[in-house]
Design goal:
- The protein is mostly helical.
- The chain folds into 2 domains: 40-98, no CATH class; 105-154.
- It is built from 7 helices and 2 strands, in the order E-E-H-H-H-H-H-H-H.
- The protein has helices at 25-39, 41-58, 78-88, 92-104, 108-119, 124-131, 135-153; strands at 9-10, 15-16.
- The protein has a two-stranded antiparallel ribbon.
- Strand 1 and strand 2 form a beta hairpin.
């Protein structure tokens, strides 16, 4: 699976976040979206696990059958019902995959900063202390990480 095959649209912003250049209002929204994804990674990871379990629960019923003349206007084909249910499940798994691919492309220092600041929810001064860096270096690592993720998703 590649990032290109994943949907990177967010209805909150109502735009295709990948297709915008770096110096417009949409770029700022794109950066906010990336930060939002990083902050919500643990939540999205848990949600994706629940999505997978939910899919496992509904998949045993995906055999088609012929019932003759339809008696209702409802969809009677279990396979079609499964497809409709799958489409209605939020795609947290895709977002988790996007975050993980992007995270793996970062340098060691940027990974550590993202892990501590966004995933483990440490405060800036705690991250600086843990990594033994200044606040300026913290900002540089964070900017580098966000810019790298933006490039990957562009």
């Amino acid at each position: 699976m590649t990032i290109n095959s994943l949907s990177i649209k967010d209805n909150t912003f109502g735009i295709d976040l990948v297709k915008h250049g770096p110096k417009d209002k949409e770029a700022a929204k794109f950066e906010d979206y990336i930060i939002h994804l990083l902050r919500d990674y643990n939540y999205l990871k848990a949600k994706s696990i629940l999505e997978e379990e939910r899919l496992c629960e509904i998949e045993p019923f995906c055999t088609s059958s012929y019932e003759g003349m339809p008696h209702t206007t409802d969809i009677s084909n279990p396979t079609e019902n499964l497809a409709i249910k799958r489409m209605s499940i939020p795609q947290a798994s895709n977002l988790v995959r996007i975050i993980e691919i992007s995270y793996n492309a970062l340098t060691k220092d940027c990974k550590q900063l993202i892990k501590l600041f966004y995933f483990e929810k440490m405060r800036k001064f705690e991250v600086c202390s843990e990594m033994n860096i200044s606040e300026d270096q913290f900002r540089r690592y964070r900017r580098t990480a966000i810019d790298t993720i933006k490039k990957i998703l562009s």
